[in-house]
Every structure is written in structure tokens, then in C-alpha cells.
Amino acid sequence: REIEKYYLCIVHGKPVPAEGTLSGYIFKDAKKNQVYVKHQPEPGAKLSQTKYRVLQTKNGLSLVECELLTGRTHQIRAQMADAGWPLLGDGKYGSERKNKQFGETSGQALYSYKLVFNFTTDAGVLEYLNGKVFSVSKIDFAETYFG
To answer: CB neighbours of 6 closer than 8 A, spacing ≥ 6?
Structure first.
């Protein structure tokens, strides 16, 4: 909880509200390598929280920044799809028809683009990272759809 992890993704539609927190309980089906978002606690499901903020919207797509508050398997993909905004190119949680409309069928538009080190406890040999931000400035799918 001392490293902030940010992702950029492109989703179908326009998230409303434009920023917020998605909360739910992620249940993993290991046989299918797929997760399901539950809206009530149940055995085997773990709390999952993702902050999101819409950066741009254009042509039925939105560029969204997500901050992981928890780190669950397929968290962003599953929560965004559950909210009604599946990731562009996501064949597992998204819409094949919508993805084909944009010519995206090879993988989801999701990229870990920023890490912020914010240690509140002794970081030992990693202390030199405290306060540092590492980010990628150019992400191909964002450039393609949002310039």
C-alpha cells in the first residue's frame, strides 16, 4: 500500500460519473482463468477497489486513468466491464462485436503507465525511491485513438 499504481485504458462508452471508485468482490474461477464481480461479500470473494477518472471521450470511447487500491487478478478489466464500460480489445470481459467495430481483437487497451513511491514505513534499501514517480509518456493505443 505504499506504491501507487496507475493504469491507462480505453473503454467503450462514457463512464458516468466522470470519476469515482468501483467497489465489489472479485471471485476467481481458476479453471476458466476468469473472475466475476460480486456486489455482496461471499465465500472466496475478495474486496476489490479501483479509482477511475475519465481523461477524454471521443467516438464512443473514453480514455480512463485507473488507480488500483487493491490488486486482484483482472481487476480493472472485470470491474469496468461490470460497470458497463468494457475495455477496448478485451475478448474475455468485453464485446467482440464492439471490438471488431474498431478493429481491435488482439488484446485489451490497458497499460500500467505510472508508479508513485510513497513510503510511510521504513523502506530499507529502497528508501532512495521515496517520493519518486516513474511514468511512460507515450502509449500507442492512447495516441491512436486520442492523439
So the answer is: 65, 66, 67, 68, 112, 113, 114, 115, 116, 135
Predicted pLDDT at 106: 75
**Helix (H) or strand (E) segment spanning residue 81:** helix 75-83
- The residues, ordered by sequence, that sit 6+ positions from 100 with a Cβ below 8 Å of its Cβ are none
Residue type, 63: L
- Report residues of the chain scoring pLDDT below 50: none
* Cell numbers describing residue 20: 469515482
Strands 3-12 and 110-117: antiparallel
Give the cell for residue 102.
Answer: 474498431
Is pTM beyond 0.70? Reply is: yes
